[in-house]
């Protein structure tokens, strides 16, 4: 039966209500149960890892091995209960913008953009979802700057490479490279300054078509002691690589590449970053964002640099590879 309230109530009396009202024992029990449940919900909300149980949209520029490896590395490093939705642009920029629009309208908590076309589509279409882009060799060329964008480095710091080259070739002074300014930026000022500090001078030749490459290379090779390859689709094709390899060998000029396949085919040394490792680093950045870290405080980690040597080329060119360099090579041919 209802319990009459006392005529005089203290503030600490949980049964106190305005005079003439009643509260039942079962009502008190119901209130306590409800409050207990609310406290439990708040407790769980404070301690659930926010990086779990998220939906991530993946925009991939094309179905190529390097991009697939980056996606696999990313997925393997994300929490196991993450949901992934994938879109393959197949090299079509327009399709990228359409897919990015779908992502914007979806419930995705984060976007992974793999390759330059996917990154560009994300920049143009996605404004209120965090975007992590990767596998973009020249991000400054595409103006990949926005409050919701953060990139993962795709190339190892060139300073590390120059330090290793100084150990490998102590007498090396002049390094040449060929590039198309419409597709690739020249070496940055800080790189040139670091090279100068180590005693290197970069000599460049600019081309605007694949037809200009042979003449530029023949004019450059007699003036340099090493040829630095950069990722430039005008300069480097299957046919041009065979040509420049032959011309460099004839001039006894070692080639410095950015892919182990170049070294397997005759380049003296190559520096690169494993695509799977790039994907793993992108996942670490994504987890930080999903856990509440602001973009401005994020400094993307540098994936591990890898190195390949061609021992046969070194012998042909009369270059002795120091044990300190040989011991850290990831591949030797």
Name the CATH superfamily classification of the domain at 158-274 and 306-332: Response regulator
**Approximately what portion of the residues adopt beta-strand conformation?**
15-25%
Taken in chain order, the helices and strands follow as: EEHEHEHEHEEHEHEHEHEHEHEHHE
The unreliable regions are 1-51
Cα separation of the termini: 92 Å
Average pLDDT number: 84
CATH architecture verdict of the domain at 158-274 and 306-332:
3-Layer(aba) Sandwich
Q: How is the largest sheet built, in terms of strand order?
A: 9-8-10-11-12-13-14
Task: Tell me the Rg in angstroms.
Answer: 30 Å
Helix content: 25-40%
Biggest sheet: strands, sense, closure? 7 strands, mixed
Class by helix and strand content?
Answer: alpha/beta
Topology, number of strands: 14
Approximate shape: elongated
Distinct helical segment count: 12
CATH fold-level assignment of the domain at 158-274 and 306-332? Rossmann fold
CATH class of the domain at 158-274 and 306-332: Alpha Beta
């Amino acid at each position: 039966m209802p319990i009459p309230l006392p005529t005089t109530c203290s503030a600490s009396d949980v049964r106190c209500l305005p005079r003439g009202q009643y509260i039942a024992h079962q009502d008190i029990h119901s209130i306590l149960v409800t409050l207990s449940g609310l406290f439990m919900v708040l407790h769980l909300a404070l301690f659930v890892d926010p990086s779990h149980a998220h939906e991530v949209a993946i925009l991939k520029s094309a179905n190529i091995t390097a991009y697939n490896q980056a996606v696999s590395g990313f997925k393997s490093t994300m929490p196991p209960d993450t949901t992934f939705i994938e879109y393959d642009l197949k090299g079509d920029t327009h399709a990228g913008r359409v897919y990015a629009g779908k992502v914007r309208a979806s419930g995705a908590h984060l976007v992974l953009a793999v390759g330059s076309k996917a990154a560009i589509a994300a920049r143009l279409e996605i404004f209120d979802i965090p975007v992590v882009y990767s596998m973009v060799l020249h991000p400054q060329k595409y103006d990949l700057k926005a409050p919701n964008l953060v990139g993962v480095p795709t190339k190892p710091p060139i300073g590390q490479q120059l330090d290793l080259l100084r150990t490998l070739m102590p007498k090396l002074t002049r390094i040449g490279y060929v590039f198309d300014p419409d597709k690739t930026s020249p070496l940055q000022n800080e790189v040139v300054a670091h090279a100068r500090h180590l005693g290197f001078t970069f000599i460049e030749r600019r081309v605007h078509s694949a037809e200009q490459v042979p003449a530029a290379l023949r004019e450059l090779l007699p003036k340099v002691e090493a040829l630095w390859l950069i990722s430039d689709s005008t300069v480097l094709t299957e046919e041009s690589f065979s040509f420049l390899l032959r011309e460099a060998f004839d001039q006894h000029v070692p080639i410095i590449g950015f892919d182990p396949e170049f070294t397997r085919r005759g380049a003296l040394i190559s520096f690169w970053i494993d695509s799977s490792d790039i994907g793993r680093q992108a996942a670490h950045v994504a987890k930080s964002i999903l856990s509440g870290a602001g973009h401005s405080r994020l400094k993307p980690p540098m994936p591990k640099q890898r190195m390949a040597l061609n021992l046969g080329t070194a012998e042909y060119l009369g270059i002795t590879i120091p044990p300190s360099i040989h011991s850290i090579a990831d591949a030797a041919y």
